[in-house]
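Lab notebook, page 48
Experiment: co-folding of the full assembly
Goal: obtain a model of how the components sit together before planning crosslinking
Operator: M.T.
Materials (sequences as entered):
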Amino acid sequence: MSTTAATARVRERLEDYGAAARVRMREYLREGQSRHEFYALVSDYPERGGRALRASLCLATARAFGAHPTEALNSAVALELLHNAFLVHDDLEDESEERRGHPTLHLRHGAPLAINAGDALAVLSLRPLIENVGMLGPRLTLRILEEAERMARESVEGQALELWWRQHHVLELGEVDYLRMVLKKTCWYSTIYPMRVGALIGTRDGVKLDRYLHFGFFVGAAFQIQDDLLNLVGDEARYGKELNGDLWEGKRTLMLIHLLNVTAPDERARLSRVLGTSRAARTGEEVRWIRERMEQYGSLDYARQVAHGLAGAALHEFSRVFAELPDSPDKDFLEALPTWVIERT
Amino acid sequence: MSTTAATARVRERLEDYGAAARVRMREYLREGQSRHEFYALVSDYPERGGRALRASLCLATARAFGAHPTEALNSAVALELLHNAFLVHDDLEDESEERRGHPTLHLRHGAPLAINAGDALAVLSLRPLIENVGMLGPRLTLRILEEAERMARESVEGQALELWWRQHHVLELGEVDYLRMVLKKTCWYSTIYPMRVGALIGTRDGVKLDRYLHFGFFVGAAFQIQDDLLNLVGDEARYGKELNGDLWEGKRTLMLIHLLNVTAPDERARLSRVLGTSRAARTGEEVRWIRERMEQYGSLDYARQVAHGLAGAALHEFSRVFAELPDSPDKDFLEALPTWVIERT
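Observation: model returned without errors.
Model output:
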């Protein structure tokens, strides 16, 4: 399959599944709107769109394993609600200014209501999971909740790691630290969990979930690295966040960790000083300087190579663990995913 | 029963049940500590103590309905973890400075890690509820999760209401608005839900839960009003929060709402101006002025009367809905609760 065909296939699937998930998500949000105007805030991020990658991955995996798509719809919707909850709190924690092309929620409504709206989205994500019981029965519903608890725990722990590094000015980091953090912060909820739940539903809890862990990790890590690269080189209008935002925020991306490890001692000392200041105290000149050093030391090329390596490993894993599944458009979607991840702009 | 005897009875029960809940809660928190130093932050509020009212109410109700206390322990622990999650985010949203006699978590570690620690506590609260399945079976476990989702939703909606009033400078409020907000923000998770879950476990889902709603609402609302009164007149060392903190925060307490409704037009205009500024812009003189006007207009006495009325209504409800239960120390505890709530200092 050519890369263009792979990308087109993924896009098409994302559109279909994303639309189905959004329709159902709105039903859950609308119910709240009848109770208080505050739900306009809660619905803000979900209504901004987004590609619904996580919901699609959950729906596609369930279907590839033989489920009817409606059987995984509640789990997919719950995941999108939780994803939006994470985004609201992440944006606050990172002091981000833009999300999906608009000001972040806390810039629009202040930190107190934004913290609360994030909490509300997390709480709302529980309902569809509990309501699984009508279609999937109590045992499978509880198994999915068990997986959801693990996934949410991995995610907050991963986010804690990243925040800790920034707050405590941690600079002695290597690729292994980075990948461990990304495994927890990004992969668990973006790729590993959606596929585990899809497989649980498709096989009625009849498969060893740890088989799919590696594929999810490789795809998810490649996705995160590509996302961080787009923050530095992307097209702002399409990217939906401020360019170089990660540098303003001092985020420990793979590029920054690479730069810290290869740069000359005097430059490293300057880099350390710049990262030691608060976001507000950082200047545009300093941000440009970091960006230029990354170019000079090949940090972006290095990260691109790692992302490509991870995508290749994912393709290898795919042929190892999914080969036994019958051919289907959903299986094709899963196979095309690693290619799409590193091709997207 | 004399009021002193009632208070002593409640205190004793709180100590016993609180100790049991704290031991189990530490087990859940310790597991995390093996994974990352960040869990020291997550454990901070839980380790500061607190009276474990919610856990005790859950354990006592379960036992009054015939359960073995260990059957409700997981649900009680989950509730304490969620309570601590709420406290961390509430303190951020209210810009509070003290909690249980120490600086608030965000003052100690910054807003980003504090938001994340609150999220972690909320996620951790799910585990004991899911692990109920071993002792209570899948159906009852799911029923409790259903109740927990409703409770958490009511709580975030109640908190949203209060934040909304402050953020949007809402002053046209009456006692009904206040009680509706407190029903959602405080009563659902502090009194209504703990008793509902206790009754669910004690009767194996064999009782109509709405019967206990009124008792929980009356006790919970009296509890919140008394708590807000203590913020104005309490002993700071025992109270554990800064005195007059609610006035600094512009919190819409029953006393403030009373004052807004009875004060002379020129004073109301001044009050509106003061409440319209940010916490940072408010002065000690302005806070003292509000406090004095409350004294002058009898706002504190009015709130005390409402709290007493609610406690009396709770006692009436108790005799209406709990009379059929066999006598037990736990039934006595429930009966003594309304008295304790308004007597505590």
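Interpretation: The mean pLDDT of chain A is 93.
Next step: discuss with group before ordering constructs.
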